[in-house]
Amino acid sequence: MVKVETIASANVSVSSSSRVSAHTHITGLGLDENGDAIVPMVGNEQAATMNTSGLVGQTAAREALGIVSDLVHSQRLAGRALLLVGPPGTGKTALAMGLAQEIGSHQSNKLPFCAMVASQVFSREVKKTEVIMEHFRKAIGLRIQERKEVYEGEVTELTVEETEDPLGGYGRTISHVILGLKTAKGSKTLKLDPTIHDSLSKEGVAVGDVIYIEANSGAVKRVGRSDSFATEFDLEAEEYVPIPKGDVHKQKTVIQDVTLHDLDMANAHPSSGSSSSGQRDVASLLKSMGKPKKTEITDKLRGEINKIVEQYINQGIAELVPGVLFVDEVHMLDMECFTYLNRSLESPIAPIVVFATNRGVTTIRGTEPNNIKAPHGIPIDVLDRMLIVPTLPYSVQEMIAICQIRAKTENLNLSDDAFRLLGAIGQKTSLRYAIQLLTPANIIAETQGRSQILPDDVSQVDDLFMDGKASAKFLLSNESVGFMS
């Protein structure tokens, strides 16, 4: 028997195992069992070890989104809108990502989450309203539950019966397939149509495999090799599964989660296999989702899909699962988009929409030449439909805590003085700029043969680079004459 030992590598980097992005450290909203925000003790290593799900500060906003998460899972907030407002760099997108993680953490009740930036609606190829509706329907799920007749068991016999080719010649053709299936309760021999032989061959089914066959469609699925054929080798090329329990012929419940956009794309090019009555079963709807094509989806088609979905819901076959649509930089939308949003939010199958913006009183796009101004660049009638959650600027201690979490995520080692200097730089410039200095400072430390980042390294990269505020101040000063004209 071959002995296999696993040896841990001494030089395992974060970048080799997983890619670190701007919000990799966000794993939830950081709430306790009572729905209160967990507040770490900032200023030491405890900030990076407490289970805050990567979020620091913004306690009121986190607790508000925690209530929203509960309402979404209870499906009591569909068709509502939420607005996150605050200065740049105050964690609006991070809070939306935390809400998405919080919603997705319920394994028994997973909900769709779709994110977009408002500037995506501007395209020469697709209408603005089409882009909005497409993302709306990506955020609305449909949980389809079907009871199917299946034959399941371990293959005990697989015989292909051939006969003379009816067209003549020397060839022979398959007349039928004899398949023996065995479970813990009994066994059965099946006589199958020759067309199923192709599915059996494609799955590589052999005697001793555990398979199941759908009675209505003839689809074959190879589950694995029966564990009665398992050996004592440490390394096995096969996946061994236990022999199924119950009868060979049984009723099985199959649950599939799709979005309304998936159904739209699947039916944009109707297959020739649809019935003459115009109704299609769930299997044919899902089967046509395999090869989506770029096409214009009309309101008439979406209306027909909605009728079919409503029919499935009334029959108890499917359940509508409204999710969350996150729209960042909502002030980029124009008057036409806001008017369409008003109508879309009133739809009976609408998700909860979370908007985010960093603008105050500004001009509503699309109102030229009058240039009508409104809070956050959103018309008042749309703003009245929203629950507004403000985000506040971070304190120095909170910036230090966030830098500690990011340093741990990026596997960086900083001294306490370096963290304090980063907090001071973030207070003077912005949190985004302070976090961006982490990796360059690490490179400076490595070139000097050190694994720990010191305040001198942070000061050196701060002198090399310029933040947005410093750049604007320089351009407004007399020193910039002739620099950019």
UniProtKB/TrEMBL annotation:
GO terms for molecular function: ATP binding; ATP hydrolysis activity; DNA helicase activity. The keyword Nucleotide-binding applies. It is an enzyme of class 3 (hydrolase). It is found in: Nucleus. Residues 78-393 form the AAA+ ATPase domain. Its EC number is 3.6.4.12. It catalyses: ATP + H2O = ADP + phosphate + H(+). Its main location: nucleus. InterPro entries: AAA+_ATPase, P-loop_NTPase, RuvB-like, RuvB-like_C, RuvBL1/2_DNA/RNA_bd_dom, TIP49_P-loop. One of its GO terms (cellular component) is nucleus. Keywords: ATP-binding, Helicase, Hydrolase, Nucleotide-binding, Nucleus, Transcription, Transcription regulation. Belongs to the RuvB family. PANTHER family: RUVB-RELATED REPTIN AND PONTIN. This is RuvB-like helicase. It comes from Fragilariopsis cylindrus CCMP1102.
